[in-house]
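Loading example: each entry is read as two labelled lines plus one structure line.
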Amino acid sequence: MKVFVYDLEKCNGCHNCQIACKDEHVDNEWLPYAMPQPDTGQFWCKVEEEVCGKVPHVRVNYLPVQCNHCDEAPCMKGHPAVHKRADGLVVIDPEEAKGQKDIVASCPYGHIYWNEELQIPQKCTGCAHLLDDGWDAPRCVDACCTGALRFGEEADFGDELKDAEVLGADFGTVPRVYYLNKPKRFVAATVVDLDADEVVEGATGLLQRISDDAVVMTAETDEFGDIWFEDVAPDSYRLWLKKEGYLDQAVDADVTEGDHAIPELPFFRVPVRK
Amino acid sequence: MEGKTRGDTVFRGISWSAFACSANTACVDVKDGKILRIRPLHFDDVSSSEQRRPWKIEARGRSFEPGEKTMLPPLSLSYKKRIYSPNRILRPMKRVDWDPTGERNTQNRGASKFEYISWDEATDIIAKEIKRIHDEYGPYAILCQADGHGETKVVHAPHGAQATMLDLVGGYTLQSRQPDSWEGWYWGGKHIWGNEPVGMQVNQRNLFKDIAEHGDAVLYWGCDLETTPWGWGGEQPSRMAYFLEDLGLRSFFISPDLNYTGAAHKGKWIPVLPNTDAALQLAIAYVWITEGTYYRDYLETHTIGFDWFERYVLGGEDGVPKTPKWAESKCGVPSYTIKAFARYWATHAVSIAHADGGGMIRSPFSAEPARLEVVLLAMQGIGRPGVGQLHLIEFGQFGFAEWNPMPRSEKYFEVPGAYHGWMELLDGHPSFIPKTMIPQALTLPEGEKLRWHGHGVCTAPRGDQFIPFEWPLDDAPYIHMIMSDSPSWTTCWNCGNAMQDALRNERIETIIMQHPWFENDAVFADLILPVNTMFEEKDIAVDNWTGQYNMMYIQDHCIDPIGESKSDWECAIEVAKKLERFGGIYENLVERYTKGMDVDEWIKAGFESANVDPSLMTYEEFAEKKLCLAPTAEGWEDDPVALAAWYEDFASQPMQTPTGKIEIYSTGLADFFPDDKTRPVVPHWIEESDDLKERLSCARAQEYPFLMVTNHPRWRVHSEHDDITWLREISTCKVKGPDGYLYEPVWLNPVDAGKLGISDGDVVSVYNERGSVLGGAIVTERIMPGSVYQDHGARVDAIVRGKGGLDRGGANNLICPLATASENTLSEATNGFLVNVRKVDVEALAAQYPEEFSREYQPEDGLRVSAWIADETCKRS
C-alpha cells in the first residue's frame, strides 16, 4: 500500500507540488481517472503557509496538503463512485460521481472540490493514470527538488514513519499522507543586559507551566543571547531566567494561541555593594 | 515509462537569462499539437551513471551528490500558462492615431489603442521608416533596445536580432546595459579586489566542498537563494543550503525581510534596515579593531590602505567613531547584537553567500557595502579554510570555468556559432547610451550632450570605468526612432515614470517593438510585431548553470506558432526583405543576414562552435540523440581551493588590481576620481548626495518615512510571468482587493501597519514625489519596522502616466530614483529608497479614473491585449 510522506524540515515552500499538479490536470483529460481540473480555484495539492513569532524571532511553516487517501475515507461511505484501489489510492470515478455534490462535504479535510461546470466532485488522484501507465511517481513527487515529498510502499519507509504524524488524526479516517518534522510552537527571546549593552550568554531558561508549576523544558542562551524552546505544547507558561550574578527574571509566555517571541528580554545584574 | 499518457518528449531549457545561456532543462511532453506537461529531466533517461561520473562531496560523515533529475523551479513548471496566455500578441498591431505619413500623436503613447494590420503592411511601414530615418538623420538616430532578460534562445535570439540586422546597414545607437543586479560589485568590488569581470569572488573552485569541510557558518547577506537563482539555475542552491545545515553549519539571514531563504531554512535572522548594511559593516570592523580580533598580519601582506580605513572607522577623519551604537541608529540592529555577531564572526570560519546581489548591491551608493564586505572578509583572512564569498547563481557564467563552487564538469558548452543576438561587447558601437540614462537621452535639449565614464556593460574590465564618453557623437543625430525587443524598461529600471514621459517625447517619431506579450513598455509602441515563445521554435540550447551536469541539446519545436507570431530572428528577416527593395546598402540584406542558412544549418553551426571532443559526441550522434551530456571532470577533487594559494602567498595568485592586493585604498579611484564623495577612495558610509537623498536622516524622510525593499520577485523573473494564473493564486504572489483586482503584495510590519491604520488585504498606495504605485497589504512579521517590501517587476497598469503618476499594477521601478548610485558610475539605484504608504479607497479612485479602471481585466491572468484593440470586430478575429 502506497503512502505520501512529507518531510517538512526539507520543504522549501517552492510550491512545485501545487504547480505540477495543475500542469498535469488542468486542461488535460485523463479518463477514466479524472476529468480536467479548472484552471484556478481548485488545489488538489496546496501549500499552506504560516508566519510565526515576532521580529527577529520569526519562522515560516509550509504545510502542503492534499487528499489523504484515507483507509477509512468518509467520502467512500455511501458513495460507490469513490473507491480505494489496491495500491491504497482513493479515486473518484468522474462519470459515476456526476451530480453527487455531497461527496464534497463528506471530506472532513475539505480536500474535495466541486467542479461547477462539469458537475463533478474532484480531488487528487495520486496521478493514478500515470502510475498505471508505468510512471514511477505522481507529478507532485517528481517535481519536488529537495526530497521533502516522497511516495512509495509504506513498508519501504520502515522506521522513518514511527514518529510521523497525520493531519486530523482525531477524524479517525486513517490517512495515508504522513508528515515528518511537523513544526510545533516555540518560545524565543533575546536576553540582554541593557546596562552593559551586551547580550547574555549562558543564562539558563526554565519554562514553567502555570497550571501546575511543572518545569517542562530548560534551555540556555547562546552567544547571541538567544534562547529557543522548541516543540512547546499549547499552554500558558512562565519563563524563568537564571544566571550567577544576575537577578532571577520571570516573564509570561502564553502559547495557547500561537508562538511567543520576546525581541528583547532585559536581564539585570545583582547590584554590587562596596 | 509508457507512451499512452506520455506523448512525444522534447528537451527544452525553460529559463530567462536570454543570452544563449540556458538552464532549467525540462522534458516537455507534447501530443496532438498540444503541450501535455513540463517535467524535470531524469539523467538516467539520457545517459548512464558510468557516462555521467556523478561527483560526490563528502564532509563530516555526510555526502552530497548532483541529484537524479534537473531542479526545475515553479516558474518553469507553470510556463504552459505563459505560452497560452490570453495576453499574447497574435498579429502585428499599429497605434490607431500614429500615422507615419502624417500626424504621429506621440503624446498619446501609452493611452491610445491599436488596430491589427497585416505582416505585409507592418514590415512595409518599418522598412520605410528605417529608410526615412537613415536618409533624414543617419543610422545613429535609431536606438536599439536589445538586451536584458527574456526567454533564452540562440538561433532565434530574443534580444538583438533586429540590431544585428541593422549592423549590416550602417549601425545604430546602442542601449548599453549595465550589470543590473550586481552594480555594487561591478562599480565597487572591482576597485577593491578586481575579480573581473564582476567584482565578486570569481574563483570559486571547490569552494562549496571547502566550506562543507571547514566552515562554521554562512551569512546569506541579502541573498535569497530560494528566489533569485530560479530563473536560470533552478533549485539546486536550495539543496546546497540544506546540506550545509545538515553538516551543522550555522545560517544567518541579514536583510530587512525574512526572505524566502530565511523562511525555508533554519538560522538567525538579523534584520537590517534597507541599504544601511554599510553602517552594520563598519560597526563590525570597529569591534574587531578595538578588540584586536582580526588578521592583522594578513592585512599587512595582502592588502593596502587598511590604515586609512582604521582611521576612518575610529573617527579620526570625521570625529565620529563607527561604534555599534552609531550603527544601531542607522541600521536598526541593536548594538548588543552587532557586538555579539562581530565576536562570533571573529572566532569562526564564516563565509558570505550571494546570488549576485541583495538589496544593498542595487541601492544608492552600492559601491560602499560591496567594498566594505571585501574589507570584512579580508580582516578575517579570506582564503583560509572555510572562508570565502560563495556564489549561488549562474555557475560558470561568461565561460569562466572557475566561477562555479561545485565540482568541475569536463565541458562547458557554448554555442556562439548559432547565436543571432547582441553580445555584451565593447567594440563596434561608437554611438551608445547607458541604459540608466535613456530617459535623459531621449529628452536631451538640442545642443547638449550627455557625459559619463565607462561602457558599463557586464564584461568590461575595471579600467573601462575610467574612460570618458559622450553622446551624441559629434555631428551625430539625436534619437528619432526606437526599435525594441525588450519592452520592460519602465518596470525594471531606474524611475520608469521618467521613461514613460520620455517615450512620449515628440522627437521620437517612431517606436517599433517586437515581443510575445502585450505588456509594460509595449503599450507605448507605435507598431508591434508578434513574437513566438521558445516552445514554437526549433533551436539549440546549453545548460551549464546548475552544478549538476553540463548539457547541450536540440530543442525541437513543441507546438506551431500561435497566431501569426514569428521568432525575433524571423521578424528581422521579414523587415530585411522589405529593406532590400531600396537597393544600395540594403541590397542582398537577407542573404547577408542569414548567410543563406536555415535553422537546422544554424544549429549545426552552433554545435561546431561548441568544439565538442568527438569522443564525447559527433554531430551525427547529436542530431540523432538530440542531447549531449558532459561528465564530471576527472580529478576535480585535486583542484586547489579557490583562494587557498592567495591566502598562503598573495603573490602566487594576485588580485586583478594595480597592486595585485586587496586595495582597501583603491588606487584606481585615487588616480581618476580622487574627489568623488559618492564613491570615495576608501569605502565609507555615505549619508546622502546632491542627487540621492534616500536616508531616514534626510529631510525628505519627514514626508516619506519608510525605506523600500524591492527584491527580485519570488513569482516572476523580473517582469516575466506576471500573467501565469497558477502563480497568481499563491497567497504571497497577489492580494485580492475589494474590487476583485489582484494587487502586488506590499509587506508591512504590524507596528507600522497599526500606525498607518492599514489591515491585511487593504489596497495601499506606496508613494513619493516621483509617483505612486498600488499594492495589496500583507501585514507580517517577515518585514522589520521602518521598511516596506514589494517585489519589483509587476506588470505596469498605468492610471496616470509619467512623473508623479499612478500605477495600479505595483511596478515600483516607476518611482525609483533616476540618478545613478554614485556620481561616476552608471549603476541603477532601485532598492532602498524613501516612500510613504497610505490606505486608498479604490472605489473612489475608480470613480476618478473610470476609463483606466475599467480596462478589460481578468483577475486570473490580469490585463489583456484585447483591452487595447480599438475595433470591436478586430477583437473577435
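The mean pLDDT of chain B is 96.
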